[in-house]
Amino acid sequence: MRSILAFILGVLIIPAIGFLYFRVGHPPVAVADQPFFLEKQIVRVPLQARIDKEMPAHTAIAATPENLVAGARIYREQCAFCHGLMGSPSTIASHMSPSTPQLWSSHRAGVVGVSDDPPGETYWKVANGIRLTGMPTFSRTLSETEMWQVSLLLANADKPVPAEAKDLLTQSLSLDDLSRAAPPSR
């Protein structure tokens, strides 16, 4: 009887403490706060499971020079402000939480950005966005072909890209570039 009472109290007390902590405590909600205990693991596991379940198994278009150049144009206009350019990381990326990956920087031997991910995984992230990270969904602003073009470009970030694409990815962003990346006013 005592163990049943202790179990019931435990089932009630632990959620009540959690509720009070989030209601009147100081959970980490500001970007400058330290991450919550196990935050990355709590978010990463279901995110990766969903991506693995829903990402397209095959690309809808080929990684032709034309598609890579088109992907570079899209990337420059829509992605570079947060994810940086070749040789020029974003100035705001480290001030986001979680920090934004720089997609033209090496992070492991031979791996540039997300070039070690299948194109379908990058496509899923571009199409759906990722909650609580600042990564928006582009499914309402880019066509399926455009999302594939940028995804294929990023999948090939560890390989040479066409000269026109490289030019787009190495020139500094201008005010015109930034205004095209801004969301439309309502």
What does this protein structure show overall?
Helices cover 51% and strands 3% of the residues. The chain has 8 helices and 2 strands. Strands 1-2 form a two-stranded antiparallel sheet. The longest helix has 23 residues, at 2-24. The mean pLDDT is 88.
- Principal-axis shape equals elongated
What's the N-to-C terminus distance?
A: 62 Å
Oligomer: single chain
The side-by-side strand order for the widest beta sheet comes to 1-2
Element string (H = helix, E = strand): HHHHEEHHHH
Tell me about the largest β-sheet: 2 strands, antiparallel
Total discrete domains: 2
User: How many β-strand runs?
Assistant: 2
| Overall mean pLDDT | 88
Cα-based radius of gyration, to the nearest Å: 21 Å
Total helix count? 8
Structural class: mainly alpha
Summarize this, please?
This protein has 186 residues and is an all-alpha fold. It is 51% helix and 3% strand.
SSE topology sketch:
Elements: H1 2-24, H2 39-54, H3 65-78, H4 80-83, E1 106-108, E2 111-112, H5 119-128, H6 144-155, H7 163-170, H8 175-181
Antiparallel strand pairs: 1-2
What key phrases describe this protein's structure?
Cytochrome Bc1 Complex, Chain D, domain 2, mainly alpha, two-stranded antiparallel sheet, elongated, 186 residues
